[in-house]
Design brief:
By secondary structure, the protein is of the alpha+beta class. The chain folds into two domains: about 110 residues; about 60 residues, no CATH class. Helices cover about 25% and strands about 30% of the residues. The chain contains four helices and twelve strands; from the N terminus they run βαββαββαββαβββββ.
Amino acid sequence: MIVAVDANSKDTAAADHLLYELLAAVDQPVVACTHMVSGGDRPHVAVSLTSAADLADPIRAVVADREAGLAVTRPGASQPELAGPSQLVRGAYVAAVEAALGTAGRVVRWPGHELGRGVLPAAELRARCGIDYLEAVGGLPITDDSLVDTLDFLRPVRREGQLVLQLQPAAGNVLIPFELQHQQKCCADH
């Protein structure tokens, strides 16, 4: 089942915060993603949670007092359950479709995420964490022996049904995640 929520989060940090609230309400293995939503008055970020368990009621309880769109897709159902303001339902529906197809989404939680700690050879990182593919910016080649310093923070993306972790070169002949935990906003010094 997939439960997607669009609470009009202005950026991935706000969407991550919402996801952590939702994750605290469920006690099941999930794949939790953020999804960019375009259109409307401004781009923003929605979230999705995919699980074999029924997460709809705990998620509804968390978002009940907020202005949020909700899309719930159940296996075998002919249509999703939709609720909330129409502009936010649209974003939740987009997130649910992307989660179902595995075509897009920034993955915040997935089975194996907790094993991505420390410096690991690329092959071990993939095997431990369930990451399908490692991709370095600029086409830098990655071998099974390439060392990856996870910095204890991994945010793969979904692409063509796979988990793809984007990496960049760093000092010490290691690769590090492209998305760092504490990003400096562009033009922060202006």
